[in-house]
């Protein structure tokens, strides 16, 4: 069997919102299996919009274009494929606002990652097999919050909730993790722990990671490769080590000050209606809930 050469393959991806603004403009991108790539750009540059398209949450403009995940198209020419749920099983999505169901235990939130491979009656009843519960406990211990398994998710700090989201991706057995500004609302110490966990997923589990970041210094520290967006276009794709202040100023002009300011944590404009944490988490669970297993 031929090895998959690209975990993510994007060709001519564009997205225009109702106000006529082009959020993505002819994006071409390749990410190899096992890479950890940073996605940077000023607020509104298209980072969140790009990640949502890769995950099949949002359809692109109706023009010749394609996004492939591990060799399988997830959307083509502005249409999300009918098999999107089965393809999405391989994608773990880590949101900026954690997207845990606050009223449920941490363990149950993590077990949501296993829904897609369970029979329909287990999904409806919430009765998870022992093997899946053992996997969830192991994942929680791996990210350093095993002692909080029985706590309500609402009781965790922001950094702990984000680590629970990473444990969910482990239980999901995701081959790709898309992380959308995962440290934007965290303090420096929590940010370091979350980025360390993402790096561990990449190095120890060989999970492909594409993480959008607002801080160039974090990209330099954790990712060998950086892709930079400006106004929906890829303006740089290369070694993170080459991202000098002079190059950033050339690429972004006045926006470079925002990229170089570690204290700035503005989120991308997604042009979607905001979700409450519980609603967003429920949507995530539904996205993973593929057709019933045999």
UniProtKB/TrEMBL annotation:
Statement: the UniProt record of this protein carries the keyword Membrane: yes
Keywords: ATP-binding, Cell inner membrane, Cell membrane, Membrane, Nucleotide-binding, Translocase, Transport
GO cellular component: membrane
Domain ABC transporter: 8-256
Pfam families registered for this protein in UniProt: ABC_tran
GO molecular function: ABC-type phosphonate transporter activity; ATP binding; ATP hydrolysis activity
Name of the protein: Phosphonate transport system ATP-binding protein
């Amino acid at each position: 069997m031929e090895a998959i050469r690209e975990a993510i393959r994007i060709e001519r991806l564009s997205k225009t919102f109702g106000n006529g603004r082009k959020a993505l403009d002819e994006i071409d991108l390749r990410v190899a299996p096992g890479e950890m790539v940073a996605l940077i750009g000023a607020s509104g540059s298209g980072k969140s919009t790009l990640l949502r398209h890769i995950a099949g949450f949002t359809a692109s403009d109706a023009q010749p274009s394609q996004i492939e995940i591990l060799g399988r198209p997830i959307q083509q020419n502005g249409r999300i494929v009918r098999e999107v749920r089965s393809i999405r099983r391989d994608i773990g999505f880590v949101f900026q606002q954690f997207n845990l169901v606050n009223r449920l235990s941490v363990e149950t939130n993590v077990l949501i990652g296993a829904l897609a491979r369970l029979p329909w009656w287990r999904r409806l009843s919430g009765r998870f097999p022992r093997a899946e519960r053992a996997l969830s406990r192991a994942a929680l211990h791996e990210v350093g919050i095993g002692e909080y398994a029985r706590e309500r998710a609402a009781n965790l700090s922001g950094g702990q909730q984000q680590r629970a989201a990473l444990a969910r991706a482990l239980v999901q057995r995701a081959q790709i993790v898309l992380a959308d500004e995962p440290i934007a609302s965290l303090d420096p110490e929590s940010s370091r722990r979350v980025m360390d966990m993402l790096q561990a997923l990449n190095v120890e589990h060989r999970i492909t990671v594409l993480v959008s970041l607002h801080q160039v210094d974090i990209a330099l520290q954790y990712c060998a490769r950086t892709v930079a967006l400006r106004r929906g276009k890829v303006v740089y794709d290369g070694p993170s080590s080459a991202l000098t202040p002079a190059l950033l100023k050339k690429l972004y002009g006045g926006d470079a000050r925002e990229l170089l300011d570690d204290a700035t944590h503005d989120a991308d404009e997604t042009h979607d209606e905001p979700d409450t944490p519980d609603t967003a988490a429920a949507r995530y669970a539904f996205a993973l809930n593929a057709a019933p297993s045999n």
